[in-house]
Each structure stands twice: as C-alpha cells, then as structure tokens.
Amino acid sequence: MRQTVPVSSASPYIELDREQWRALAASAPLPLTQADVEKLRGLGDPIDLPEVDVVYRPLTALLETYIASTRERARLTAGFLGVEEGPTPFVVAVAGSVAVGKSTTARLIAHLLARFPQTPRVSLVTTDGFLLPNAELERRGLTARKGFPESYDRRALLDFIMAVKSGAPRVEAPVYSHQVYDVVPGERTVVERPDVLVLEGLNVLQPARRAHARPEEGAAAGALAVSDFIDFSIYVDADPEDIRRWYLERFLTLKRTAFNDPTSYFRTFAKIPDDVAVAAANEVWESVNLANLRENIAPTRPRATLVLHKGADHHVQRVLLRKA
After folding, report:
1. Has residue 221 got a pLDDT over 90?
2. Are the C-beta atoms of 221 and 155 separated by less than 8 Å?
3. pTM of the predicted protein model
4. 231 DSSP assignment
5. What torsion do the CA atoms of 44, 49, 54, 56 make, to the nearest 10 degrees?
6. Cα→Cα distances 263→40, 99, 127, Å
7. What are the φ and ψ backbone dihedral angles of 95, each rounded to 5 degrees?
C-alpha cells in the first residue's frame, strides 16, 4: 500500500522526505547503469546509481505524467478550436547555484526521459551560451558580475525559448566553453523540435524585469521572461556553506587537472600554491557566486515546481512538489 504523504495547508508545496520519495520509485523504470551515471555526473558531484534510483526514477516518472497531461490539454484545446495543432516541446528548467550539481541533474533528467517511449527526442541546452562575450562584459563594466542576470543576452535567450515553444523546426543556441571561459564564436547547438527541452542555468526562473531591460534588448525583454515559457521547473537547493565547500573542492580538482591545459583561462592558478589559490577562489565565491545566489538565484526558489534539497553529502534529503 502506498504511504500517504501529509500535506500542510500552510505551504504551497507537498514535502516528502527521502524515504517517502524513495517509495514512489517502485513502479518507475531505471534504464541506467553505473557506467552511464559516471559519464553524466558533473565534476565534484559524487552521485551514484543508488542515488539515481532513489531520486531520479520517481522524478522522471512524475515528469512523464506532466508531459502526458500537457499533451492531452493541447489535444483538447485543438479540438475545441477546430484546428490541427500538435503539442509543442515540453520545457523542463533546472536552476540553482554554481556548484550545487544542477548540470548533473539536467543531464540525468534528459538521459532518463529519452528512455521513455513517449519522449524519445530530448535536447539539453545550458544558458551559459547566452552569456555576453567577455569583451562585451568588459565594455559594459560587468566583468565582475558574470553570471548575474544582467550579464546575459536576455533578448537572444528569450528569442530562443520563444522559437522552441512556437514549434519552430530548427532553433540554434550559442555554445559556451568553460575551458576558455567565454562564448565560442560560430559554434552552435541545434534544437530540432524535440519532445522535451531541458534548459539548465543559474537564472532560468527569473521573472520579467521591466525596469532592468536595456535598450538593445528590446521592449519584449522587459515584458516577458524565459520562465514564462517553462512547463516544469526544478530548483536544486543546498545550504550555502555546503555549496561553498563543494565549489572549493571542485576548484582544487580543476587546478590539478583542467587548469594545466595551456588553453585554459585559469591556467595561472595551476602554478601557484594550493592555499593561495583556494584563498582567491573563496574570495570569488564570496563576492560573486554567493552574492548572486543571495540576490538573484535563491529568491527564485519559490517559483519552482519542484525543489530538490541536498544534504552535506550531496544526496537529496527532501523533495518539495508544488501542489496542483
């Protein structure tokens, strides 16, 4: 017998602890192996097959119910209007802080959803590609605020998501390289009318900000936001102190690996003592990433359809699902 989950009338969310959420996985498929998980997880994220089993089996099964109900509503609406119009791509957004593990979450969701026969075509796009190029950030005096909402080409990002949701047969997104710490000129990710688009980024749940729209972004950039075109949103949450620790641990791993590449933007960090490098990284965390989390990212958490709250070990301990 399925366990009944108590619902508090004072909250817009149904809250489940880890064991309650695990119980929902019984009838959901798990088509991944440990080798698959190792390929999909991000640097510094210790996710393993048991964690996928507990967290992502029920999550993707739940997503399939939302996708099915959205398609049914589209079918009924088309019938009522007397038009022939198929469903447009279902957009799943994944938001959260730097280093919280949202990239791993997005990749796992995309991979798992593609295993369902109802949603074989799944595309994954990160909003990093819509960051303004470094030269443009410098011109606008935004270099120290990279990752903040104003550091993105919001007009281009909005145009992209509007085209996807309109059912355009082919839409392109720019590509960002973490190695060179900049947008890659001429490189594009192509999205061709998928069943599901997974959109991952720091600020995907931001509401429209009319007062912040720049003239070059156009009027629509202030009247609409990417979040207006999202069908299901996930916020990956954790205590800021845990995220800081994960950020610094990831930084040290990169210092000993990727930063040694001559093409790396951060190659100078590879040659200095660990304690000096960590002190510099901690300053970046405090002045940029934590500030962005507090000012812009965390305030969007209540807008999410579902919140995955991680404990200090990176494992999800609580799941909050918005009431229907």
Report:
1. no
2. yes
3. 0.91
4. S
5. 70
6. 24, 22, 22
7. -120, 170
